[in-house]
Amino acid sequence: MRAYETFAFVYDEVMDETLYQKWFDFTASHLPKKTETILELACGTGALACKFARAGFQVTALDLSEEMLMIAYNRAIAEDVEVTFMLGDMLDLDASVKYQAITCFSDSLCYMKDERAVQQVFDGVANALAGDGVFIFDVHSIYKVDELFPDYSFHENEEDFAFLWDSYPGDTAHSIVHELTFFVKDEDNNFKRFDEIHRERTYELNFFLQMLESSGFDNVQVFADFENKAPTPTSERLFFVCRKYSGG
Question: What is 144-201's CATH topology?
């Protein structure tokens, strides 16, 4: 089963809602003042996209999961905001439309299969950005993947579902495997079991910087854990604020 297919329907129940405000605040503090258009990659259930739209930005939100987009679309209607939702893969961005800002949060880049895929995303983003555009994204740190995630276990029990999340080291360096099991109540009040495997991988900070430079980003700032502070050896989430060469 494709990653996030079943997870979409319980994602908001297990997600820490305060993180969306943190992602929004961090992004807003680093956007150029004249920013109007934002492309959000891996938008999930649309919580952050709706925050951007409510703040007055013209938002396009892309995700690979139809289930996630269905929830996001209904959220936008309920919150009475306008967001253009697109079903698509961030490995294959349309360079014919330019955006002043592109974001990719919730460690979504860590789901790329390998460094070539990450480089492909960076290249596509660079091509889809306006000449003075900014690319803002986050990834798990090596410390989090190597030291904190292994043997991680999270279990959630609610009236209509149960959710089990267990993590184990992956086969490649700085990778992790998340085994997700869901028990979801159906119309007959019976619980059905669904299983998903999520694989994430991260890289050394300097390797990310090299790939970004290769894609044309010469002005890159790196922060950690939602704060405008430099990463430390025990930072868990790295944030990159990237601008292209002045030539566009």
Answer: N-terminal domain of TfIIb (2.20.25)
pLDDT tens-place string over residues 205-243: 999 999 999 999 999 999 999 999 999 999 999 999 999
What percent of the chain lies above the pLDDT cut of 70?
A: 92
CATH topology classification for 7-141+204-244: Rossmann fold (3.40.50)
Q: Residues 13, 46: contact at Cβ < 8 Å?
A: no
CB 169 within 8 A of CB 134: no
Q: How many residues does the chain have?
A: 248
Question: Is the model's pTM score more than 0.85?
Answer: yes
- Under the banding of pLDDT at 50, 70 and 90, the label for residue 3 is very low
Give yes or no for a contact between 23 and 17, defined as CB atoms under 8 angstroms apart.
no
pLDDT in tens, 68-127: 899 999 999 999 999 999 999 999 999 999 999 999 999 999 999 999 999 999 999 999
What is the full DSSP assignment across the chain? --TTTTGGGTHHHHS-THHHHHHHHHHHHHS-TT--EEEEES-TTSHHHHHHHHTT-EEEEEES-HHHHHHHHHHHHHHT--EEEEE--TTS--TTS-EEEEEE-TTGGGGSSSHHHHHHHHHHHHHHEEEEEEEEEEEE-HHIIIIISTT-EEEEE-SSEEEEEEEEE-SSTTEEEEEEEEEEE-TTS-EEEEEEEEEEE---HHHHHHHHHHTTEEEEEEEETTBSS---TT-SEEEEEEEE-TT-
CB 201 within 8 A of CB 118: no
Distance of CA 101 to the CA centre of its chain: 15
